[in-house]
Every structure is written in structure tokens, then in C-alpha cells.
Amino acid sequence: MQSSSLSDYFAQRKIPLLALGPSLLLPAEFSSVEQEYWAVRRSVGIFDFSFMSTVELVGSDALALLKLIQNRDCEKLAIGKIAYSMLLNENGEVWLDATVWRLGPEHFYLITGSAILSFLLAAARPYSNLRLLEISDQYQVIAVQGRHSSALLETVLGLKASDLPQYFAFNRPLRYPSLLIARLGYTGELGYELLVPRAEAITLWQQLQAIATLPALECGFLAANILRIEAGFILFSNELTKPRTLAALGKLFGAASESGAAGLQTKLVGLHFPQSAKAINSEVNFDRDLGQKIELTSHAFSPQLGYEIGLGFSSQAVLVDGPLNPQARHVAVLPGGSNLGPVYIEKLPFSGLCAKT
Fold first, then answer.
1. Among 146, 102, 95, which residue's Cα sits nearest to residue 123?
2. What is the pLDDT along the chain (357 residues), one digit of tens a residue?
3. Angle of CA points 354, 355, 357, to nearest 5°
4. pTM of the entire structure?
5. Alpha-carbon distance 236 to 72, whole Å?
6. How far is Cα 268 from Cα 314, in angstroms, rounded to an integer?
7. Residues with Cβ within 8 Å of residue 272, at least 6 apart in sequence
8. Are strands 24-27 and 94-104 parallel, antiparallel or unpaired?
């Protein structure tokens, strides 16, 4: 009989859930969105990221398959290191982002936001020396995010600071050999993601909350969404609902940019709407295409800025110089009649909101 998952634990506690995609239910919030947001920005929060899909690749053809399906040179990836990667379709367009973990010369994990085993099996047909295995059910993924995240892990796991991995690396602590710890996250703060054996996940979650000197607040997806938008990170179910070029995502300088209906090149930008009300955060009434110049893909109310912000794809040709706002260092403003009032184009990440360490 399979042990209980974190989602079972939250269901027993009647934590409200949010559908991120088909069969992807995540805790929406545990206390309040703003309280959870500030916990990460000021101290530490813990998130359940167990919706992530992990496929194990083993064999001498693993590198050949990775070279075929994504944009990073994994041959140069050292053992114990992680690469943030973009999965590409037959046209070289991005349809999903991922992390590639190298566990050995011919041993990798590919971790994504949605299940891709069937895609990998189809792509791997030409390769005979390769084993692909979906191992997501074996692990739960706990993200520990915020400036006190390392101190919390050191206390709970009995580790030294030197036991924790560097950025985009992972390890197995000697005192906790069943656990994989990676220094990752998309909040813009110091953070870690833990691959925890399923049977141990609920106990570890509770232990992370039990340290009185470093209280970790349980955080849901709504807070994570605000944090990642402020940090300028894409979400597969929002920014990648249709294929994008690497250049449009800002991931490859000099590549061909994506063209819109009018032939204008587009790029991912930050957006904010100074005149919008906080109430629109719960009910979206935005046009998906603002005057056919900005394609809005994500939005949320920023507790720190005090207004609605978002991500979207903008035709760079329509940008003009606009008035600077000292609160957020806006670099351009979209002319024309948006029913949201001024729509400002913002450099990513949003200025001064994240404290990467």
C-alpha cells in the first residue's frame, strides 16, 4: 500500500486547492496570500511542489536524447549540477521548461511541470541503450524559500552551511541520505527544493514548521505565483500555452525573434497597471490581447508595490519613452486606449523586489 502524500495530508486538513492544469491540484493558500508572500520575502516559507514530474534517464544514449529535445549542452554539465532548460518541438520552439539534473556520466533526472514520459518514449525510439522511468510517485517535492531557508534546513536536518549545495547544484546530506537537496526556486530569494521519499514527506513538512526560532509558514500557489511574476519567471501553464521562440523568452541573444500578426517581433516583458484595483486579482476581466500590442499571460496583485503586475509578450516596435516612476523604474509606456488605464512596460525582474543571495 502506497504511503500518504502531502496532498492527502492537506485534503484531511481541508486546505483549499487550485487547479493549475488537468489533474494538477495544488494548495491555493494556507493562511492568507499576503501573509504567505511576506513570509518568503522577509523570512521563510514552505511550498508543496509535488505536482512536478520527474523522469529518470539512464544509459549511454541519454545524452543523445537530451541533445535532441532541449537547448542546453548537457555533455558539459558536471555531476551534481542542474541546468535550467527549454524543451523544443520539431520547429525549435519552446513548449515546456525543465531542469536537467546530472547524477552520473549516463544518469539524469528531467523534471518538468507536466508529465512528459510519453513524449520522451516517442523521441527515444531511435535509441537502444536508454532506460526511461517515471519516478514522480516515489518522491514528494518540498520547496523552502526565503532568506532564512538555509538556516531552517541546517536546524531541522542537523546540517552545516557547507553541507548545502551551491546555486543550481544538488547533493545528498550524509545525515539524510534518502533526501536530495537542490538550491533552486523561482521566488527570487534564496531557496531550496527537496526531493523527499514519499513516506517521509509529511513528517519532514511538520518538522520544518516546528522550529520556534525559525517559524516556516506554509505557503500555497497563489503566493508562489506573485513571487515568480515579480522575479520574472515563466509558468508552463501561462507563458507556454503556445510554443515560443527562445528569443521571445529572452533566453538566447541573437536568435530569431517571434513575430506577431503584424510582423512585429515580440519579447517577454513585465507589465503593471497602476490604476487597477486589487479586487481584479480574484476575477480576471483583462483582455488577453491589449490592443493587439501586448499579449497578457499572467497577472497578480503585488503586496509590495500595491498594484497589479503581470507578464506578457510585447511587440518591441510599439514601445516609446514614457514617464519614469521612482517606485518601480518603469522604462516605457504603451500608448493607446487600454481600458485598464496606463499599461507600463517593466524590465524583468521587477526592480528591487527580490533579494537573490
1. 95
2. 577 899 999 999 999 988 877 777 889 999 999 999 999 999 999 999 999 999 999 999 999 999 999 999 999 999 999 999 999 999 999 999 999 999 999 999 999 999 999 999 999 999 999 999 999 999 999 999 999 999 999 999 999 999 999 999 999 998 888 999 999 999 999 999 999 999 999 999 999 999 878 889 999 999 999 999 999 999 999 999 999 999 999 876 445 556 655 556 788 988 887 664 443 333 333 444 444 467 889 999 999 988 888 998 887 655 544 443 444 444 344 444 444 555 677 778 886 677 655
3. 140
4. 0.89
5. 18
6. 7
7. 302, 305, 307, 308, 309, 310, 328, 330, 343, 344, 346, 350
8. unpaired
3-class secondary structure, 207: helix
DSSP character for 203?
A: H
C-alpha cell at 317: 516596435
Cell, residue 139:
518522491
Single-letter amino acid, residue 91: N
SS3 95: strand
Cα-based torsion angle of the residue sequence 310, 314, 319, 321 in order, rounded to the nearest 10 degrees: 20
Q: Which residue has the cell 514548521?
A: 209
Beta strands in the chain (DSSP E): 17-21, 24-27, 45-48, 53-58, 82-88, 94-104, 107-112, 131-134, 139-145, 170-171, 180-182, 191-197, 217-219, 258-259, 265-273, 289-290, 294-302, 307-315, 332-333, 344-346
Pair 57, 70: CB distance under 8 Å: no
Question: b/e map of 143-179 (b: 16 or more CB within 10 Å)?
Answer: bbbbbbbbbbbbebbebeeebbbeeebbeebeebeeb
Asked if 220 and 30 touch (Cβ cutoff 8 Å), the reply is yes
Distance, CA of 92 to chain centre:
22
**The residue to which cell 535509441 is assigned:** 127
